[in-house]
Every structure is written in structure tokens, then in C-alpha cells.
Amino acid sequence: MDHFPTNWGRPRNDAHDAYGTYPIAERPYNGPKDSFSEGVQHTQQPIVTGTSVLAIKYKDGIMMAADNLASYGSLARFKDVQRLHTVGNHTVIGAGGDMSDFQYIQNILDELIIDEFTAQDGHSLGPAEIHEYLAQVLYARRSKMDPLWNSLLVGGFKDGKKFLAYVDLLGTTYSASTLATGYGAYIAQPLLRSAVENNEDTLTEEAARKIIEDSMRVLFYRDARSINKYQIATITAAGTSISESNHLETSWDFAEGIRGYGAQTQ
Amino acid sequence: MTSIGTGYDLSASTYSPDGRIFQVEYANKAVENSGTAIGIRCKDGIVLAVEKLVHSKLLVPGVNRRIQTIDKHIGLATAGLQADGRHISNRARDEAGNYRDTYRSPPPLKTLAGRLGLYVQAYTLYSSVRPFGISTILGAVDKYGPSLYVVEPSGVFFGYNGAAVGKGRQLAKTELEKLKLSEISTREAVIEAARIIYLVHDDAKEKEFELEMSWIGDETNGVHLPVPKELFDEAESKAKAALENFE
Amino acid sequence: MPGLPQQRQFNPYSENGGTILAIAGADFSVIAGDTRQSEGYNIQTRYAPKVFRLTDRAVLAVNGFAADGNMFVKSVKQRLEWYRHAHAKDMPLRAIARLIQTMLYARRFFPYYVYNILGGIEEDGTGAVYSFDPVGSYEREACRAAGAAQSLVQPFLDNQIYFKNQLAAAGTSHPTHLPLPTVLSIVIDSFTSATERHIEVGDGLEMYVVLAKGRTLQGLEGIRGMQELTTTDDGERVFVVRRELKKD
Fold it and tell me: Can you give the residue ranges of the Proteasome alpha-type subunits domain (chain B) (predicted)?
């Protein structure tokens, strides 16, 4: 027997709660049922986001760059965020997309590295292992329909070998001598390819730095979610290093000549 | 061993009439039978050293380490039952990981020693378990600087400038007291640690032993690492030479 | 519609372009795919293999959503390794085909968004091609194309392999199987043509050739860019031929 008066049927007066039920007078819902409504995880979207990450292979290893902006929609919300992260002794990852998901990824990778370090078994994780691990994590999360909303670049140098690969929220992976996420895939990637393809083993650090800086500048001119403050990471036989923030030199003189932009009135 | 046959020593959950827990005292005996382990707190870091007795010539050199890594910046050396040492190091790693997960920062050694103390003490409360047959030396460089703790089988733990546990602890302590621990560098302490381990080793009674040494400090960038081979070899040969002169 | 809640749902799939094909001969099989991986108008990489050697007599080509494809190949390889550990031999081709059906159908309600073509040598020594849809429907065929340029390549293969819309000269009949050099030429022509007409096809071509046990190289010796992957010649042999395709 159902002991709850609210389940006994429609009362004569909906406004008056004759049985003083707690917390509220509620009758069973007899409308159409959505049998999938439970157990379905709903929409996710990135909230605080980072834009492009760029990376190239050069003579000594990998060079990677990302600016210091984390946007809240179109608002430039956080202007000193580091989007490059060192993992172990041979790897740097760079992230675009949701920054809280990226922080979560940083934490699980830090834990992974400590677990491997404390084992003291003479092995250390290289960039290929880190990339495979990330691909598994991101693919597993997309398969639960609860993705980690990021595009990540993984760059590294271990045992004399360069490594550069991509992985994103769908678990999609690929590797190439130049990579760019987000807007960079449209704007910077062609510049990087024409400078780097077939020159991976001869390109000097100085030349690589110039290509990266020029690409970051173009991105700052064209990507409204970017900022003129960025960091460069290098990963070589000597290990990993992430630079202090650099400021981009930009020139807006050309704006004077653009109708409707500069000082013209007509 | 007046405790034997009285019946008060059969369980960790029973006191003797004069307020002692014999099972804990027996656990200390297990520690006393073990090779010596020492820890030195220097001005710029920590040095751990262990006299690992090798019970068989057939063993591969370097196996069954008694110095373990707990976190990037934390090392641990045990004296007593080997298996208990491994169990406690696994627990310590879990605790350190748990602290990092909760507070997103490296665990201070005092906190870790406290948690390990609680864990070890829980094994002195129940008739269904046996107390840990180990004393644990914990060393780290954390936000408070270099620190050194010892957790005993009873669960008590103290901070030290120099610590020694195991068979040769008395002589080792005497030697440690002679050092100026507030002024010594880790590099110097490695030499002293090797000397002390060689000194306390009684080769009349004991068979072979392996020297294990690790350090944490400015030299290692705050990371717990084995002492590099070059320095290790230097320390070991100086220790052997000192032993000749001593005798 | 005002008043109704709007929902944007996360889309767990993507399409990564590219094309694969396989052709079975009497005692060989050719399995090929281009190496471009793309999303929309972006070329993600010019080299992402879509064709994988599973055993000495089975090669799998996977096309569609790259993340699903890579994960699927990884699981198939793991199952084949377990089979080797249990039975001390490689799984036969037709068994691999059925395994792939089972694994695809297991995800019937959250499919692997991939088209599979399995090529190799059967236990009776014949060349074979199996093709699958994303949820596991499969059949054995003489040839199959799949992927972005399927609609360009398959009619060409129908004409060149099955001789559709071709009449044999009086008093002759169409051959039932083509020789290996002819098949390789057809494969290369298929991909160069698809590269011309489809933006998602190009960059590189990988053609795997599986030869039945004890067969000669059948004119494969002189092929440019050929490399043998098997180490012995007392069983089935696997070769790969790599070629450049246009990169525009």
C-alpha cells in the first residue's frame, strides 16, 4: 500500500493541502516520460579559454609558444596565465581551450610524474608516453560524453629524438613537424609549414625563434582572443625550459591609411 | 626477558601490570637486529645512509633498497623488517599523494611524519595485528627547510638534527654528536655518513654489507636522489681509509 | 522556439577525410590508403597511416573518425595478441573478419565511426578482401573502396576489376583475377585520380601487398619504393610500397 496521500490521486482542491504534506504537496507526474533523461550528461562548453598554441621542430629539438591570455567569452579575463607546462624532464605541453580542464590535466600529469619518480626503477616517461597517456585520457572522457575541452600540443626530446604531436577533446591525435591549435591552425600553420617543412634538421634556434615570434605577431594582429604577451618553451637534449613572458613589438601605423579606422572624417 | 611466560606479551592490546606493551618492545628488538640507518640534517639539506646487510652472496647487487623515495623532495630509510619497510613507504607515498591532492602543494615533512605516526600507532591498539618491526627515518627539504624525523614502532616520532637506528645506533649517535651539524654541508655529510656506516659495521659478526646513500638539498635542486657515483665512491674509499687509521 | 530550453550537445565525432581501398588477387591481396589527415579545410598532418599490418597475412585499413580508428586498431591488435598467447599461432583471416564484426557491433549504440577494409590471405591460400560498415555488417569481396573518395574510386574499380560495362572481345572472356603489377597500377591510378578531384585525398600513398605462401614476387621486384616487412620467406609475406601524392 502506498502510504503517501499525495500519491492517492487528484485532490478536490489543489490549493489546499488537506494532509499537510511535507515538504510540498506533490502529485505524481503522469505526463509523457523521457526515459533517457536520467543518466544523460548534458551540454558542456568551455568557459575560461586559451587560444592558439604553436610548435615547430628545429635543429636542436622542439620550440613551442602560447600567449598569456585566458578569455571569458570575449572578455580578456586573465592576462598572466601560463599555458605551457613542463612534464617530467623531457616534455612540455601547451594548451588551448578550457583552462580549468587544463589545470586538471596538469594535476594528473604531475601526479603521474611523481608516481613514476618515486618508483625509482630507472625509467622515466618521455614525450611519446605522455602523449599516448593524454590521448587515452581525453578519448575516454569524450567516450563518456564528458570531454576535457582542450587542444594540446606535446613536444619533447628524449634519447636523441624529437617528438611533436597533437591531441584534442575528441581524442584525435596526429604528429607533424609544425603544429598549431585553434586560430593558429588557420593563420600560423601555413607560415610555419613554409618555413620549417624539410628544414627540421638545419633550422637554427635563432631562426626558429624568429619564425615563432613572427607567427605570434600575426596571430595577435588577427585573433581577437589573443594578447601581445607570450612565452616560448624549448625542449632539447639539455632539457626543458620555458621563457619569461615576452612582449610583442607591433606597429599600427598602417591604420592611419585605412578609411573608417584612423583620423579621417570622410 | 621477564615478560615471557607472564601472558602479558601475547597481544598488542594488552598492558602489563606496570603499564607496558610488550609487543611494542619486541618490535623494537626487531629494529635492533637490523643493519644501521642514519640521517643527517645539514645546513643545506639532508643525507641518508644505510648499512644494508647482504644475507647471501647470490643476491644481485643493489636490490632490496632500504632507502626509498616518497615524494620528489622526501626520502625514507628504514631499519628493521624489510617487508614492513616497504609497506610503510607505500603508505607514506599514498599519504604524500593525498596531501598534494587536497592542498595542491608538496607535503611538509612534519605533516607526513604525523600521519605516518598515527598509522603506526594504530598497529599498537589491536590484538589482531602486530606492531611494525621498523624504525623509519624521514628526510626532506620542504618549505621550512631541511628536516629529519624518526618514527618508532610505538608510533611516536621526533625531529632530529642527526638520527641513527638499528644495530649500530649507539656508536653512530656518538659519532654524529661529534659533528657540527649546524655548519656541515651535504657534500661533507655524505663523507661522514659513509665513514660512520663503515665504522659501526661489525665485520667480525656480520657478513657482507652494501652502503646505500641518498641526499636532498641545494645540490640536487631539492629533489631526493641517490648520491652520485663519483661522490659515493670518494666517500666509500675515504671511509675505508678512515677505518684503517681508526684501528 | 521561445520558451523551450535550448540545448547544444557535445558532438563526440569528427570526420578526418582520406580514402582506402583493397583488391584481392588469386594468391595476393593489396590494401592501400592515402596518408593525409584533415578536418574541414585544414590538413592536420601529411602523414598519418590508415593501413596497419595485423599479422603476417592480414592487413587492416581504417577510415573515418581518426580517434575511433586508432583506438579500434589498438583493440584489434590487443585481441590478436591475446589469441597468439592462447593458441601459439596467428588468427586466420576469416576469424579476424568475424572478430572485427563482433567488436564493431558491441558498440552498436555508440559506434566506432569508421569504415574498415581487411585484406590478406585465407587459410586456403587465396587472396581475400573483407569490407565492413561502422556497426559490423561485413562481406567478402574482390575489391572495395571506402572513405572520402569512395564515390570516385569504387565505380572505377567496378569497371577495371569486375569489368562492369565492358564487353569481352568475341570468343574471349574477362579474366577472373588480375596479375599483381596490373592491380598495383590500378591502385596508383585510383589514388592519383582521387587526389586530383578530392581535396581530402593526397600527400602520401601506402600500399600493402600480402603474398600467399610459396609464391614468387610476381614482378614486385622492380617496384620503386618497395620494402618487405616480413623477415622470412617460408610463409605469407608482407610488403609495403610508399609513394608521394600531390600535396595541394
Answer: 8-30
Search chain A and give the residue with CA nearest C10: A43
- Report the Cα–Cα distance between both ends of chain B, in Å, rounded: 35
Classify residue C162: in a domain, yes or no.
yes
Our CA-based measurement puts residue A169 at a distance from the nearest CA of chain B, in whole angstroms, of 24
Question: Residue ranges of the domains in chain B?
Answer: 20-52+65-246
C-alpha closest to that of A234 among A79, A98, A58, A108: A58
- Residue to substitute from B76, B93, B138, interface A, most A β-carbons within 10 A: B93
| Confidence at residue B13, expressed as pLDDT on a 0 to 100 scale | 92
- Set of cell numbers at residue A129: 608516453
Cα Dmax for chain C: 75
Structural domain for C49, as ranges: 19-244
Full domain range(s) for residue A84? 48-246
Quick check: is A28 in a domain? no
| Residue A146 identity | D
pLDDT at C220: 84
The DSSP result for C129-167, as a single string, is EEEE-TTS-EEEESEEEEETTHHHHHHHHHHHTS-TT-P
> Beta strand pairing status for A239-242 and A246-247?
unpaired
Predicted confidence band of residue A2 (pLDDT cuts 50, 70, 90): confident
Give the residue-averaged pLDDT of B102-120: 97
The confidence band for C193, taking pLDDT boundaries of 50, 70 and 90, is very high
- What whole-number distance in Å separates Cα of residue C98 and Cα of residue C89? 17
Q: Which fold has domain B20-52+65-246?
A: Glutamine Phosphoribosylpyrophosphate, subunit 1, domain 1 (3.60.20)
Number of domains in chain C: 1
pLDDT tens digit string along A130-170?
A: 999 999 999 999 999 999 999 999 999 999 999 999 999 99
**Contact (Cβ atoms closer than 8 angstroms) between residue B47 and residue B213:** yes
Amino acid of residue A228:
N
Tally of residues, chain C: 248
Contact between chains at B70 and A118 (C-beta distance less than 8 A): yes
Q: Least CA distance to C14: which residue of chain A?
A: A170
Task: Nearest by CB to A174, from C10, C45, C71: name it.
Answer: C45
Cα C12 to Cα C134: distance, rounded to the nearest angstrom: 15
Extract the C-alpha cell encoding A63. 620550440
Q: Give the nearest chain B residue to A106 (CA atoms).
A: B104
Tell me what pLDDT residue A35 has: 62
Using the beta-carbon criterion (under 8 Å), do A173 and C71 form an inter-chain contact? no
Residue C134, amino acid: P
User: How many independent structural domains does chain A possess?
Assistant: 1
Nearest to A194 by CA among A167, A172, A173, A218: A218
Q: Which pLDDT score, from 0 to 100, does residue C2 have?
A: 47
Residue A132's CB: how many other CB atoms inside 10 A?
A: 16
Q: What is the CATH number of the domain that holds A104?
A: 3.60.20.10
pLDDT of residue B223: 97
* CATH number, position C158: 3.60.20.10
Task: Give the per-residue pLDDT at A37.
Answer: 60
What's A256's DSSP letter? G
- For A26-77, write each residue's pLDDT tens digit: 555 666 666 656 655 555 899 999 999 999 999 999 999 999 999 999 999 9
Q: Is the pLDDT of residue C3 over 60?
A: no
pLDDT in tens, C102-141: 999 999 999 999 999 999 999 999 999 999 999 999 999 9
- 3-state secondary structure at position C131: strand
Quick one: chain C helix, strand, coil %, rounded to 5? 25, 30, 45
For chain B, how long is the longest CA-to-CA vector?
A: 55
Strand ranges, E, within chain B? 37-41, 45-53, 67-71, 74-80, 134-142, 145-151, 157-159, 162-165, 209-217, 225-226
C219-235 pLDDT, tens digit per residue, is 888 889 899 999 988 99
